[in-house]
Amino acid sequence: MAEGNKSLPYGIIHTVRACFRRLGLYGFLDGLKEKGVPLSSVIELMCVYQLNGGSSMNECGVLSDSVLVREELCHGHRITRKTIERSLFLLDLYFEETIVHLWDRLNEIYPDMSTDVYVDGSHIPREGSGTGAYTAAGEGGGTVQLQDQFMIAQLVESGLPVSVEVYRGNLNDPPQYADFVPQLMFLLKKGSMIIMDHGGSAKDLLHEIKYGEMDYLTRVRMNNSDIERIRNEIERAEYVGNGTMCIHHRFESSDRHTYLYFSVDRYIMGHLSAERKALRMMQMARDAKDFTEDPDPRKVVKTVKNPFIKVKSVKVEVEMTLNPWLEEDVAKAIRETEKDDCGWFKLECSKGLTPLQALDLYRHRAGIEALISSLKSVVNLKPLRVWSASSTRGAVLLGLIAQLCISMVRYDMEPDTVEKRVDGKVVRMEHKPSTATICKNLCHWTVVLIPRDGFRVERIFTDENDLTRLISAVLERYRGCFDGLSRAAGPWKAI
């Protein structure tokens, strides 16, 4: 029976194949597998499928059932679910080698590239028939769910993702940072800056970064000495813009720098929670009044429920420190529970940056948060659907490769200039479309395959627009890096 017309995402295919050649992935991946379908063909298909909005590997495997799709998209190979699962296993098996290969290729493509990096992590809900070595019940999305966690690194200057690792779903941030950052340091140049959230503020990790001849910028918790410094040195605070001021302190012995920032926005957000605090204080005052009328220790002491033990009697002495009926004591209780650091936050850096430089560098962590969001929504890693424990890391690495393809194109695009109002002034800034916008437009740039006469195929290209033409120009510039690679160009010679 003759096949009907087939529509394929030409823009995504065009981009993935160009980036695979530029990254040398065809030769590298095919060297990891000797028999059967070339590994590069499978990984290429999965990248195209996921960037086109797919998330089911079963459905991905069904694509090659069509002869037309098999010839145009799969290089003539029949790719089944079993082949896909085996390929994810190989990505897991050669996980570190793949990361190193991608890093080496990026350094060849961008030899003057700065290796300052942002590091952050997130979770991915797990769906599938089994739970892997990293799957555990953890808090995410406002509920407790089966999930895997991952850490990822993104270059500050280019926004390219360069490394990733998977962790158990119930593991706290500090152990993840303590494992991931030292691995990442093997890739980075000496003197690189590693920017982290407060999860990477452990002293041992910061010492290891300095010992490795690199620098760090991280958010740390405020302590009593910081509160005292705010009280005593508030007059020398420096205004840095956007409703923010800073008290900068340098430690002579270690050349460590701390930055105490006061943000009007954070101050307002802090006071928005005042109503909840007031309600809790009113409830505590009522509990205290009830206790004075009926001093039963069971009202203020709760025993831990344990099926192996039973608490029969507990001797408790309760002392009233404040009178819940006196307004002065209620006001004192409120003052004691209030924090003196409302609106303040603290950054620590091993390098002497100005307050504005440190704040801008830290605030641009929004880029890695956007990257994580792109991995989940554009590359469709959320929720994570795999069939075995060994496939988990392979699926996350696959997501990194797909994301890197789009991020490379975005980085190589020429930026537009837009006007924005910053701190009351109109500023001209460079602007590029987001990875989600790029991927959406590439998905709409399609090719319709129409069988003719039983052996000839007519191709009709649709929905090319200004943005896809800009992307096509970027991919055209990639041509020079294909020299010397063994893989053929594929069905579309324009690549």
Helix and strand arrangement:
Blueprint: E1 6-8, H1 10-22, H2 25-30, H3 39-51, H4 57-62, H5 67-73, H6 81-93, H7 95-109, E2 117-127, E3 136-140, E4 143-155, E5 161-168, H8 173-185, E6 193-196, H9 203-211, E7 215-220, H10 224-233, E8 238-241, E9 244-251, E10 256-263, H11 264-272, H12 274-293, H13 327-337, E11 344-349, H14 355-363, H15 366-377, E12 384-385, H16 391-412, E13 416-422, E14 425-431, H17 435-444, E15 446-452, E16 456-462, H18 466-477
Parallel strand pairs: 2-6, 2-12, 6-7
Antiparallel strand pairs: 1-15, 2-4, 3-4, 4-5, 7-11, 8-9, 9-10, 10-11, 13-14, 15-16
Helix pairs in contact: 1-3, 1-16, 1-17, 1-18, 3-6, 3-16, 6-16, 8-9
Brief summary of the model shown:
The chain has 18 helices and 16 strands.
Question: Could you please describe the fold and organization of this structure?
Answer:
- Mean pLDDT is 82; it is low at 481-495.
- The chain is 42% helix and 21% strand.
- It has helices at residues 10-22, 25-30, 39-51, 57-62, 67-73, 81-93, 95-109, 173-185, 203-211, 224-233, 264-272, 274-293, 327-337, 355-363, 366-377, 391-412, 435-444, 466-477; strands at 6-8, 117-127, 136-140, 143-155, 161-168, 193-196, 215-220, 238-241, 244-251, 256-263, 344-349, 384-385, 416-422, 425-431, 446-452, 456-462.
- Strands 2, 3, 4, 5, 6, 7, 8, 9, 10, 11 and 12 form an eleven-stranded mixed sheet that branches.
- It has 18 helices and 16 strands.
- With 495 residues, it is an alpha+beta fold.
- The chain is globular.
- Among the domains are: 110-267 and 343-381, Transposase Inhibitor Protein From Tn5, Chain A, domain 1, CATH 3.90.350.10; 275-337, no CATH class.
- β13 (416-422) and β14 form a beta hairpin.
